[in-house]
Amino acid sequence: MDEFNVDEFETNFWKGADDRSGWDDLEPGKVLESRPVTITLEMIQRYARSIGDLNPLYFDEEYAKKSRYGGLISPPSIHALFLFACTGHDHFMRTPGTVNMGQNWFLQRPVRPGDTISLEARCLDKVIRKGNIFAIHDNVFRNQDGDVVCSGRGWTMRPY
After folding, report:
1. What value does the mean pLDDT take over residues 24-36?
2. For residue 103, what are the domain limits?
C-alpha cells in the first residue's frame, strides 16, 4: 500500500463495504496490510481544532520550544487518526456496523510534525458472547526510527 495522501482519504465508510473482511475472514495473529503516514503540522493542527484542544504545544512554536518537549507535538489522541490513515478502505475496522466496545492505549513518546508513522495491526482473537461476535485487536504505531509511539488493544463488536 502506498504512503497516505490526505487528499485521497476515503470518508465514505460504506464504499466497498461488501469487499471488507467479515467474521470468517478474520485470521487471529495475521498482521494486516497498512501504509506509512507522514504527519504534517497541518494534520496536527486540524485534528487539534476538530477535538477542541487549542493547547499551545500544538500551535505555538516558541512556547513548545521552551517546554519539556523542545518543539511542537501532536495531541496524544491523534493515534485514532493514524488507525484510519494507515489502513485502506477495506480494513476490517472500517466495516459499517462495527462498534468500538473499548480500548486501552499506551503512549510512549509524542508525535511531531514530520514523523512518519507506521502501523502493525492484527486481530488477536474472535469471541462469541451472548449471541454477539467480537474481535479483539492489537495496534502498534512506530515512528520513522522504529520507536513505538503508541500501542493499544481494543474490542469491537462485529456486524453479522
Report:
1. 85
2. 30-158
